[in-house]
Write a structure and sequence with these properties.
Blueprint lengths: L4 H6 L6 E4 L4 E5 L2 E6 L3 E4 L7 E5 L6 E4 L5 E2 L5 E2 L10 E2 L7 E2 L3 E7 L7 E6 L7 E4 L6 E4 L2 E3 L10 E5 L4 E5 L2 E6 L3 E5 L5 E5 L6 E11 L3 E9 L4 E12 L9 E4 L5 E4 L2 E2 L9
Parallel strand pairs: 7-10
Antiparallel strand pairs: 1-4, 2-3, 2-14, 4-5, 5-13, 6-11, 8-9, 11-12, 12-13, 14-15, 16-19, 17-18, 17-25, 19-20, 20-24, 21-22, 22-23, 23-24, 25-26
Length: about 280
């Protein structure tokens, strides 16, 4: 019997997963190098979807001090669901902080001598990773893969983002108003995520008001968000654009995307059911 890859991946999301990388990995804090390694591992902690890096203890230049309190354990709160993915355990939202762990281990503070700045780290109680330290991506000032800085989080080597221009007729409605309509969308297909429909700016039919919200995608670039103003109500952060896309996703420049799971989507005139996603 055949096995669907999506189901295969989903069955292991509740486990500690790792993958070696040949890249040189460096972490910077307060102008100093905390670690420099060519033996790093990409690590997905149990119930986490996004990876971070772990490095051998021997490649760490800073002090590693156990936290006074034990690591926070992941509870059943704030679970997320991936569309059409059967998982082995409730998944943790990326908004759940690094200090929350779903596996056993020791929480650490990483600090260079003479510096007041400290990074969060975790030493898992695992036979394969007991000589490694996992570092919080957000608690460092900068991460380098070889000599290039990376943002957001490390890229997953098994995660793809494909973009295709289409003649599909795409319309998005909300509260009886057409938000956008086009027959020249750019479709973005991302591993285990819903298809996203990017509209040309002249296809948007409603007023977009700048939001203070910003986000970083390590595959696409830096995004800014927009509130949608309708006569009856303002919907915050319903749309986004990539003002600073990466070179490989430069075709996203100037296009507008909406959380269609919060609106009514029609494809070639056919209404689509609203999907349940982490952004519903």
């Amino acid at each position: 019997m055949g096995v669907r890859i999506r189901d295969l991946l989903g069955r292991h999301l509740g486990e500690l997963r790792y993958e070696p990388t040949a890249k040189r990995i460096r972490g910077m804090l307060d102008g100093q190098t905390l670690f420099d390694s060519r033996k790093a591992l990409l690590v997905w902690e149990p119930r986490r979807v996004l990876p971070t890096y772990a490095v051998p203890v021997g490649d760490v230049s800073c002090e590693l001090v156990p936290e006074a309190s034990p690591p926070a354990e992941a509870g059943p709160d704030q679970p997320i669901e991936l569309p059409d993915v059967a998982t082995s355990a409730p998944l943790l939202s990326p908004t759940v902080p690094f200090r929350v762990h779903a596996g056993a281990g020791v929480a650490l503070k990483a600090r260079m001598p003479g510096s007041a700045a400290a990074a969060e780290a975790f030493r898992p109680d695992d036979a394969d990773l007991r000589d490694y330290v996992i570092f919080s991506f957000d608690s460092l000032d900068a991460w380098l893969e070889e000599d290039e800085e990376i943002i957001g989080h490390p890229r997953d080597p098994y995660w793809r983002v494909d973009r295709r221009r289409s003649s599909l007729e795409v319309e998005l409605r909300l509260d009886g108003h057409t938000l956008a309509s086009t027959n020249r969308p750019l479709l973005v297909f991302e591993t285990m995520l819903p298809v996203r429909y990017y509209f040309p700016a002249d296809a948007v039919r409603v007023t977009l008001v700048p939001s203070e919200t910003r986000s970083i995608c390590p595959y696409k670039g830096r995004a800014r968000y927009w509130n949608v103003e309708l006569p009856e109500k303002t919907y915050p952060d319903l749309a986004w654009t990539y003002a600073e896309p990466f070179i490989e996703t430069a075709d996203l420049q100037g296009l507008v995307c909406f959380y269609e799971e919060r609106a009514d989507l029609l494809l070639d005139g056919v209404p689509q059911p609203r999907r349940r996603t982490p952004w519903s």
